[in-house]
Amino acid sequence: MIRPRVIPCMLLKGEGLVKTVKFKDPKYLGDPINIVRIFNDKEVDELIFLDILATTENRRPNFELLKKITSECFMPLGYGGGIRDMDDVRQLLSIGVEKFVLNASAVENPALVRLAADHAGSQAVVISIDVKKTLFGKYEVFTRAGKKGTGLDPVKFAVDMEKQGAGEIFVNSIDRDGTMQGYDLDLIKRVAEAVTVPVVACGGAGNVQHLAEAVKAGASAAAAGSMFVFQGPLRGVLISYPAQDELKRVMP
To answer: What is the pLDDT of residue 251?
Structure first.
């Protein structure tokens, strides 16, 4: 039996990697190429890179940097940030990106999801849903680095995106981002029960038990950032990844 995937989710800011807390206060981690090489050595399942500024700065992906990253990356790579049309999708495919992570563009131009799925296959189209609780405790989809509320319900939006051809739903809790206190399991459960495509949990993981809890809640894979880049109470930067034996034990 294949165990659920465990995916480091790295945030690009300019040409460096950072990590945020609740989508704020980005802390510099280092050069993305060096960090990819470390993850190669650790044989991680898959990697996701998200450019946190591309959409808010209204620019396209940094193809030159991504080309360098894909040339060093020995594992499946997903990328999100600034993907606006099929030209971007084709160019990302041409440089070796295997999955396109659509966020704001999926909300603002849902037809792009269908076009990308028809061109590259549903397995290549990941819809990233950034979710935050409102003052009234209701879940709402946010875009543009968590700055723009959409009024959309994440469960209904996930269902709509599956109908458009999405092959995977990436659910990221803004409230849990970088806290390392565990995923929003209620949110994951609601989305996973509503769709038939794989759901990737993100936002809040601090240890391997949290990864297992996400899978138990219905996620097909668990993504994390802080857990793989920080060490100790002072959050010193140290790139890590659980041993395969440990993952098999907690996520059979």
So the answer is: 86
